[in-house]
Write a structure and sequence with these properties.
Layout lengths: L5 E3 L4 E5 L2 E4 L1 E6 L2 E6 L6 H10 L3 E4 L3 E4 L5 E3 L7 E4 L3 E4 L6 E9 L13 E4 L2 E7 L6 H11 L1 E2 L5 E2 L3
Parallel strand pairs: 1-12, 5-11, 11-13
Antiparallel strand pairs: 2-3, 3-7, 4-5, 4-6, 7-8, 8-11, 9-10, 12-13, 14-15
Helix pairs in contact: 1-2
Length: about 160
């Protein structure tokens, strides 16, 4: 079965608070751009976030965050969030610096693997906003690819070049 090319962000929401959605997800900022990582328990959200932190990202929140769904969506740190990130088999680690809010640049779904070598354009939508959606389950170089995508953009299907967020 082919994965959908457009997914409403509200499909991932646990709850809503006005124009904010609460997600069971982990968020990091790479060069000021927010990446939301969602997936079931044990899917590797915190592991991917740790790999991104090792490459210069800053933690927004581990295992729970808000998305402000305004015209330009933002990933937001909950008031109750700590500076800790889970490392399965090691324990809770201090993340170092944290970021309170960053514009949503990329959404990653660790529950689904990308079936295509060169996938079609997939997006997560909120209102009129669209952001790239990466199906990341089992992707061996996902952290590296996400950092590179934030910094340099990605060629879209059909040869169109998408600039970095």
């Amino acid at each position: 079965m082919t994965a959908p090319t457009s997914v409403p962000l509200s499909d991932w929401a646990l709850a809503a608070d006005g124009r904010r959605l609460q997600l069971h997800a982990t968020g990091v900022a790479v060069e000021g751009q927010g990446i939301v990582i969602r997936g079931a328990a044990g899917s590797g959200k915190s592991c991917l976030a740790l790999r991104l932190l090792d490459r210069g990202a800053v933690l927004i929140a581990d295992d729970g965050l808000w998305i402000d769904t305004g015209d330009a969506p933002f990933v937001e740190r909950p008031d109750t969030a700590t500076d800790l990130i889970e490392s399965r088999g090691v324990g809770l680690l201090r993340a170092g610096a944290v970021c309170g809010r960053a514009p949503l640049a990329i959404a990653v779904d660790l529950d689904r693997a990308e079936p295509e070598r060169l996938p079609p354009r997939r997006v997560i939508t909120t209102g009129a906003a669209e952001r790239p959606l990466i199906l990341g389950a089992g992707h061996p170089a996902l952290a590296e690819a996400l950092v590179h995508m934030i910094r340099h953009g990605r060629s879209e299907p059909g040869g169109r070049i998408a600039s970095a967020p």
